[in-house]
Amino acid sequence: MKLYNSNVAPNPRRVRIFLAEKNIEVPLHNVDLGKLEQRQPNFAALNPFETIPALELDDGSVIAESMAICRYFEELQPEPNLFGRTPRERAEIEMWQRRLESQLFFPVAQAFRHSHPAMRDMESPQVQDWAEACKAKAHVAMRRFDAILKDRAFIAGERFSVADITGLVALDWTRPARIDVPDDLGALRRWREALSARPSAKA
Fold this sequence. Notes:
Helices cover 50% and strands 6% of the residues. The chain is built from seven helices and four strands. The chain has a four-stranded mixed beta sheet with strand order 2-1-3-4, with helices on one face.
């Protein structure tokens, strides 16, 4: 088993944080995105969508997409549980994970991909207007999540979950995406600081 990884991309980091929370070690095979190694035939044969992360199992089969990989390891090692134990908890964590992914993580990633010079070869054509629109969408989402977090320590309930991982990585990615986190969003900033203090955040 090995995990195709990049230390400069947000999605592989979501998986690394998840594995660190589970105390699971998986050999990493780093893919140089700057050299477009993800588009080389040997990697494209593993994942025709040419994205990382991708998990190659011992039998040669491949699981791609960060949440699919996390769900695989959740099934293998249920504790500490990060996707929910009861039907209601699983649904609520899925709801918040999806909201964070679609309303914050995706706009931040798109702003980065469509504005940063380093992405010129990977995102062609870059659409600057779309980048600016996504920055505005990210700010709207930040304010919504700030209001929700005023009375809770974690986004999906009383304990840390995969939804918090998505939120942390999205907020950390605002810097390379050149999106400011407004100073008045105290609850959002407090949440981010608390998540950043967890040992897994360094994965």
